[in-house]
Amino acid sequence: MENPYYTLLTNITRHFVNFPENNEAREKCHCASTLIRIHNEKLAVNGDISFPLKPDIWKKYFQITKGFKVKEEEINALNDPQQQDVRNEFINKAQSWSFPIAKLDIGQERCHLHLQRPAIIRLLIQKVLSDACYGTLRKSDSRLVKLLPLQEYGLRREDLSFYRAKLMYETLQKLLSYSRWLIVDKEETLPSEGNSVLKLNILSVASKVTAECRLNADSSVNIKCGLVTDPATNGKICQLPTQEYIGLRSNDMCLMALHKYGVRVKQDARFCALMERLGCAAVTVDLLEVKHTSPVQIIRNGQGSTKGASFILYNSARLETLLRTFEQRIEQGLYEPMPEISDIDWNLLNEEVSLFRRWINCLILLSGVYMII
Question: Among 7, 112, 192, 217, which residue's Cβ finds the most Cβ atoms within 10 Å?
Answer without folding.
Answer: 112
